Automatic annotation (TrEMBL):
It comes from Trinickia violacea. Keywords: Aromatic hydrocarbons catabolism, NAD, Oxidoreductase. This is maleylacetate reductase. Coiled coil: none annotated. Belongs to the iron-containing alcohol dehydrogenase family. Gene3D superfamilies: 3.40.50.1970, Dehydroquinate synthase-like - alpha domain (1.20.1090.10). Its EC number is 1.3.1.32. Residues 164-348 form the Fe-containing alcohol dehydrogenase-like C-terminal domain.
Length: 355
């Protein structure tokens, strides 16, 4: 057996259809009495419903979350938390709302209860992201790991097909990178493979039939496993590239992950053949070299645009993106070489198949 280190995260996870109803007792379990509810502006109605469920334990609603957590947005939320004398945050929504909760916790150490409504998986990680100007800074800090996560698949029924598909592929990316992480271990790899299998079946099903309760639960289960993987082991080339494209060029997060994953998986297949063979097998293939093409085919089956160009990436930015991605690269099975990365970005920009 290869030597390894496995360290789980201390989050408490409640997973069931209708689990939102357990929120009051979960907030009480933390000893909290004044919860600040966080959401994006468009999820205000859901945040108000959460406040109703919480009753007297709701201190207020702050529905100003924005993707990539601009530092100005974080500062405003911190001021609201202080003004309301909040003793915990309830972040309801996708990674943007949860990311705002993390920004508050990073400064205040307030406990977070996360109620995810997408498959991004941020609720299961001690990773935060803050964006200032054109640069996104990410880091790991135990203070930002949500203490409790309430997964209620009924809250994902309203996800549009495009978000369902791309957010699901964001989760897929966490699981794929966990299999070849520098600190990969048998426990996380088992979860990663299970996640890829679950998402590979559930995502096409819920894109076809958004109200399929069983498949919505399986998709969210896959996302939980993927987020757990992301929280437990390091990220590699794929996440570095997506943070660069998201933070510097403000590309949409999940759609960028989906478009890039076939290419980054293929980039690493020869350097991490066992890991990419597990990806391929989980998607119905056999060999490591099939993983990238199978992910590319899954994107197509989910109706996800293949080309970075369609996401607003300027062609003249590809050189800068390659330079930034190669500066302080995350550990990766294959050396991150500037020309190879620029060629990868070129294929992704065009929407060509991985090669
Ligand atoms: N730190 C970490 O470990 C991780 C962080 N992230 C971060 O999270 C963000 C991306 O997360 P993601 O969830 O993709 O992005 P968002 O939170 O922006 O949600 C994605 C889309 O889903 C919509 N949506 C969310 N919930 C519902 C709902 N219940 N019904 C209908 N639509 C809904 C949002 O609409 P609307 O905007 O209108 O609410 C938005 O259009 C990025 O900032 C990324 O960096 C992602 C993964 C891991
Ligand atoms: O890229 C991901 O999906 C994972 C991590 C982040 O997004 C970091 C952040 O919170 O911005």
């Amino acid at each position: 057996m290869e030597p390894f280190v496995y360290q789980g995260t201390p989050s408490r996870v409640v997973f069931s259809w209708g689990a939102l109803a357990t929120l009051p007792e979960e907030v009480e379990r933390l000893g909290a009495r004044r919860a600040l509810i966080l959401a994006t502006p468009e999820q205000r109605a859901l945040a108000d419903e959460v406040a109703r469920v919480l009753g007297e334990r709701a201190a207020g609603v702050h529905a100003e979350a924005v993707m990539h957590v601009p530092v100005s947005v974080a500062r405003a939320a911190l001021d609201t938390a202080a003004a309301l004398d909040a003793d915990c945050c309830v972040a309801v929504g996708g990674g943007s709302a949860i990311g705002l909760g993390k920004a508050i916790a990073l400064e205040s150490s307030l406990p977070i209860v996360a109620v995810p409504t997408t498959y991004a998986g941020s609720e299961m990680t001690p990773i935060y992201g803050l964006t200032e100007g054109r640069l996104k800074r990410t880091g790991r800090d135990p203070r930002v790991l949500p203490r409790t996560v309430i997964y209620d698949p009924s809250l994902t029924l309203s996800l549009p097909a495009e978000v369902t598909a791309t957010s699901g592929m964001n989760a897929m990316a966490h699981a794929v990178e966990a299999l070849y992480a520098e600190d990969a271990n048998p426990t996380v790899s088992l979860m990663a493979e299970k996640s890829i299998r679950a998402l590979g079946v559930a995502l096409p099903a819920v894109v076809r039939a958004p109200d399929d309760a069983a498949m919505r639960s399986r998709a969210l289960y896959g996302a939980w496993l993927a987020g757990t993987c992301l929280g437990a082991v390091g990220m590699a080339l794929h996440h570095k590239l997506c943070h660069t494209l998201g933070g510097t060029f403000n590309l949409p997060h999940a759609r960028t992950h989906a478009a890039m994953l076939p290419h980054t998986a293929h980039y690493n297949h020869a350097a991490a053949p066992a890991a990419l063979a597990r990806v391929a097998r989980a998607l119905g293939g056999r060999e490591a070299a099939e993983a990238g093409p199978l992910l590319f085919a899954l994107n197509r089956a989910l109706g996800i645009p293949a080309a970075l160009a369609a996401l607003g990436m300027p062609e003249q930015g590809l050189d800068e993106a390659a330079d930034l991605a190669c500066r302080n690269p995350y550990a990766n099975p294959r050396p991150v070489e500037r020309e190879a990365i620029r060629a990868l970005l070129g294929r992704a920009w065009q929407g060509a198949a991985p090669a």
